[in-house]
Amino acid sequence: MRRPKVRAIPPEVVAASPDPVPDVYLADGDEAMNVVPVSIPNHMPSVQSLVDATTIARENRTERVNRLQEEARSLAREQIAELEVLIDATARMAFEISDGGDAYAVGAREICRRLADELPRTLQTLQMVSRKSI
Predict the structure, then answer these.
(1) Max CA pair span of the chain
(2) Cβ–Cβ < 8 Å for 24, 32
(3) Which pLDDT belongs to residue 50?
């Protein structure tokens, strides 16, 4: 059984090439196989230029990491500020409900009374903790 002719590149490219692609024989009696010559680059970057490029890339990554961390901290501060506003609004509403009289159920007034007592202290604690981390 004969092996078919194997071409590494399409025949139309071989035909259009001004330099014929040499045939390489694999073993006794095997048909030819076209091989495309590989060119080796004449200029290889020096080790020092590779080290410099790596250092620059690392510095850029470091700067990017620092920038992203600062952005994350900024977003966290914004979110805590929003939470502080919501806690303050919730404490005021809880106080209004606890002071609302018979219009509200006794259980709702009691829960709101406790919230009105606890939330301002919670807000102060949150403000102190968030200011220490800045």
Answers:
(1) 106
(2) yes
(3) 72
CB 126 within 8 A of CB 83: yes
Burial of 85 (0-12, 13-18, 19+ CB in 10 A): exposed
Q: Are 7 and 33 in contact (CB under 8 A)?
A: yes
> 108 near 97, Cβ under 8 Å?
yes
Encoded amino acid at 112, one letter:
C
Tell me which amino acid residue 91 is.
A
SS3 36: coil
For the chain, give the percent of residues with pLDDT over 90.
46
Q: Say yes or no to pLDDT of 99 above 70.
A: yes
Q: Which amino acid is at 74?
A: S
Question: CB neighbours (10 Å) of residue 70?
Answer: 10
Distance separating alpha carbons of residues 32 and 71, to the nearest angstrom: 63
Q: CA geometry: angle at 120 spanning 87 and 77, to 5°?
A: 50
Whole-angstrom distance, CA of residue 98 vs CA of residue 113: 5
pLDDT value at 83 more than 90:
yes
